[in-house]
Amino acid sequence: MRVLQVAESDVNLVFLAPIAINFAAGARTAIHALVAGMFLRLHGIVVIANAAGTIVFESDAVAISGVIPIAANGGFVIPFNPDPRGCLVTAAAGEALNITTVTCTLDGYAIVSQATI
Q1: 107, 24 contact by CB (below 8 A)
Q2: Residue 92 to residues 60, 85, 103, 113: CA-CA distances in angstroms?
Q3: What is the Cα gyration radius of the chain?
Q4: In 10 A of CB 96, how many CB atoms?
């Protein structure tokens, strides 16, 4: 595992190297697989969809975001924010951080951290 930086020792937060996203349509795919006892947090993401569709961020199979529509050949960028309180979504401890796609494939990358709290 490559580590980008270690921040705030009181939070025991470790940023992982950027994770490539190349996700199929109509599938639930892990941005990052579960890590026992760790919370996974999404701190930044860049995605492009090949067709119109929707995505949902999930903690295992439980939605932790609303449905996000994306236009054909569209996408979004959410800049990196290192603050654990400012992350986009957090998977429950010991659960995978997933994206479910509907009718579109996704390409891009994500920046994820893992922490014990």
Answers
A1: no
A2: 8, 15, 27, 13
A3: 14
A4: 19
Task: Quickly name the fold that domain 3-115 has.
Answer: Jelly Rolls (2.60.120)
pLDDT of residue 5: 47
User: Domain ranges in the chain?
Assistant: 3-115
Spell out the SS3 assignment of 38-95: CEEEEEEEEEEECCCEEEEEEECCEECCCCEEECCCCEEEECCCCCHHHCCEEECCCC
**Of 49, 55, 56, 58, nearest in space to 106 by CA:** 49
**Which tens digits make up the pLDDT trace of 46-100?**
999 999 999 999 999 999 999 999 999 999 999 999 888 889 999 999 999 999 9
